[in-house]
């Protein structure tokens, strides 16, 4: 029904054929073409509906995640395009009511493309409304959430006159018709500093004296607001106690810091775009910005567009610090101090999106930093609505604890080691020794990290690295994860949150990053490289045939093999009486060779990726790989 509403609206429009779109979206060719937008999107939706309704990936309790392949969409960016070809992305809609920034309607048209890549899940970065106070760039961060129950109106096409809710519902329905599940990302610990909940529930937030200045980046003035400053000795104690999981009587911030915070204001009003409160004793106060919560001496710049929610309301802990927002002091882990009405509101978010739109799962931003009781209520309440609902955690570690909490996958650490073969080998051996209770995401790039195609100097090397690391990730106990744009060798990072050098961060000022401002991928030329689409799909097809071996996460099912050639990364998978042997050449300039023991009596071994046959002598094969080439043998 929702897609039919979109069709009715599109067919009522009178638009002309001066709207350009990438041909890659619907034909596989790299170019642009001019279309009538109403006709183009009508045809796209009718083509989707003309197909038989596909089955969703099966799996109870969100365990369908393990057999999935994910395509990550940042709606505002992924389907942005210079439709009038004037050399820039307009923020405001055109006279005909169509946007150049990405929308749900354009994302619907992209779904057959996503499915053809081999994906079975669409993962959306936050789609909720965005605040204005302190935001960066021209559009603000999707993580600066104004109201988690409302969707960003800028993701709709005004021409349709249906509203963003109807368009998102149509997007989810289109995904389901094609057999694609939808996982949305949510933030439950923070909100924009002008969030809708602030005037309604000021007690859900921390407040500081309005006269307290913000601390300048790189300075250590304790009289100014910023992350609390601890001495070296205090930091040692804090880190030791946290490492020991001894969270009783954790060192608190200094008195000068705690005194910046005031009681909940009795009156709140908007003044010049920000909320200002007045306490019962007449103090003027404001909402403080957030900062990285761990480690306490983290040097990240402050996050001036968001603030932390007051998860616990304890009179002795009326301040923002590591021990109130992440490594919760044991005195807080008591239901008597839970900010109950806030918890109820947070717990209601997922059921709202399930009932209204039919989403299939959520990625929880910093889920491991939520109180365990709140986390359990979030998960159990969602699975009362849908027993098959999936939970993913933005956690770099795969742990048994995460599995027991109800998660189905975690981000993992591959983005930090993918371009460093020795470190990658160490990570592989670590997973092999301790096991992978939860699958990690099989990707070396995400919206916070450098792009694959920009690694190792970029250019042709970056393209070859993208292919190599994709094939390697595909044979790990990991869920293949395509960060949109990876397949066309995008080099522009979405954000510089992780694994960037100071020099790289200077090269990408925050106001120019796609996380904060308008940006479009180079769909029209695919960055002048052959697209990786066919390669991505082929690797996924090979992977699907050996899924029982690849997704086995028990200790001993994965290990790296040492060879006489350090340029080659060789790993073995073993499970259910089957073996796979992978080899990849991390030299992107020259061929590399080595002898590999296959432990077989056969006279030949066939590479599952290329279908090339290799001669086997005395159980070994002499392997010569081209720069960046990889092979996979079934033993």
How many structurally independent domains? 3
Strand order of the largest sheet: 16-15-14-7-4-3-18-17
How many angstroms does the end-to-end distance come to?
A: 50 Å
Helix content: 25-40%
CATH architecture descriptor name of the largest domain: Alpha-Beta Barrel
Main sheet characteristics: 8 strands, parallel
* Rg of Cα set: 26 Å
State the name of the first-level CATH class of the largest domain: Alpha Beta
Let me know the CATH homologous superfamily of the largest domain: Glycosidases
Tally the beta strands: 26
Number of helices: 19
Q: Helix- and strand-based class?
A: alpha/beta
- Quick check: average pLDDT? 96
Structure in a nutshell:
With 635 residues, the protein is α/β, with parallel strands linked by helices. The chain has 19 helices and 26 strands.
């Amino acid at each position: 029904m929702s897609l039919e509403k979109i069709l009715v609206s599109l067919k009522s429009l009178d638009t002309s054929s001066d709207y350009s779109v990438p041909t890659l979206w619907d034909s596989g060719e790299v170019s642009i073409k001019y279309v009538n937008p109403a006709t183009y999107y009508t045809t796209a939706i009718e083509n989707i509906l003309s197909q038989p309704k596909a089955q969703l990936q099966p799996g109870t309790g969100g365990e369908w995640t393990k057999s999935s392949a994910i395509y990550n969409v940042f709606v505002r960016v992924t389907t942005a395009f210079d439709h009038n070809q004037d050399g820039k992305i307009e923020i405001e809609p055109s006279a005909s009511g169509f946007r150049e920034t990405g929308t749900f309607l354009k994302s619907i048209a992209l779904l057959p493309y996503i499915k053809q890549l081999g994906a079975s899940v669409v993962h959306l970065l936050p789609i909720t409304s965005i605040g204005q106070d302190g935001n960066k760039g021209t559009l603000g961060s999707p993580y600066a959430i104004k109201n988690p129950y409302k969707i960003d109106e800028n993701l709709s096409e005004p021409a349709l006159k249906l509203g963003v809710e109807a368009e998102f519902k149509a997007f989810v329905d289109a995904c389901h018709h094609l057999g694609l599940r939808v996982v949305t990302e949510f933030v439950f610990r923070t909100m924009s500093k002008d969030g809708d909940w602030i005037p309604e529930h000021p007690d859900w937030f921390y407040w500081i004296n309005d006269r307290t200045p913000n601390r300048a980046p790189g300075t250590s003035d304790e009289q100014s607001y910023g992350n609390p400053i601890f001495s070296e000795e205090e930091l040692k104690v804090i880190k030791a106690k946290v490492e020991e999981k001894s969270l009783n009587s954790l060192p608190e911030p200094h008195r000068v810091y705690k005194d910046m915070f005031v009681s909940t204001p009795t009156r709140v009003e908007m003044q010049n775009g920000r909320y200002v409160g007045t306490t019962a004793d007449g103090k003027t106060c404001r909402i403080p910005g957030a900062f990285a919560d761990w480690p306490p001496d983290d040097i990240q710049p402050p996050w001036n567009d968001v603030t932390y929610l007051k998860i616990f309301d304890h009179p002795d802990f009326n301040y923002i610090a590591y021990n109130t927002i992440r490594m919760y002091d044991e005195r807080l882990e008591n239901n008597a101090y839970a900010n109950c009405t806030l918890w109820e509101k947070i717990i209601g978010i997922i059921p709202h999106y399930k009932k209204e739109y039919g989403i299939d799962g959520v990625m929880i931003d910093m889920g491991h930093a939520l109180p365990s009781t709140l986390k359990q209520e979030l998960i159990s309440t969602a699975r009362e609505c849908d027993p098959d609902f999936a939970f993913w955690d933005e956690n770099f570690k795969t742990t048994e604890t995460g599995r027991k909490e109800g998660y189905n996958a975690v981000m993992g650490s591959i983005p930090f080691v993918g371009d460093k073969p020795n470190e990658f080998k160490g990570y592989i051996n670590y997973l092999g020794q301790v096991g992978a209770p939860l699958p990690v995401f099989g990707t070396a790039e995400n919206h916070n990290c450098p792009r694959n195609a920009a690694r190792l100097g970029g250019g042709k090397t970056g393209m070859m690295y993208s292919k190599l690391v994709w094939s390697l990730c595909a044979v790990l106990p990991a869920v293949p994860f395509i960060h949109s744009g990876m397949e066309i060798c995008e080099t522009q990072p979405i954000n510089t949150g992780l694994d960037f050098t100071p020099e790289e961060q200077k090269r990408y000022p925050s106001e120019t990053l796609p996380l904060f401002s308008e940006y479009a991928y180079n769909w029209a030329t695919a960055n002048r490289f052959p697209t990786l689409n066919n390669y991505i799909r082929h690797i996924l097809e090979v992977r699907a045939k050996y899924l029982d071996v690849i997704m086995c996460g028990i200790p001993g099912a994965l290990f790296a093999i040492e060879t006489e050639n350090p340029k080659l990364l060789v790993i073995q998978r073993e499970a259910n009486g089957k073996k796979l042997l992978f080899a990849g050449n991390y030299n992107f300039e020259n061929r590399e060779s080595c002898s590999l023991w296959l432990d077989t009596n056969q006279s030949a071994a066939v590479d599952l990726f290329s279908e090339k046959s290799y001669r086997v002598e005395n159980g070994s094969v002499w392997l010569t790989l081209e720069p960046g080439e990889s092979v996979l043998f079934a033993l």
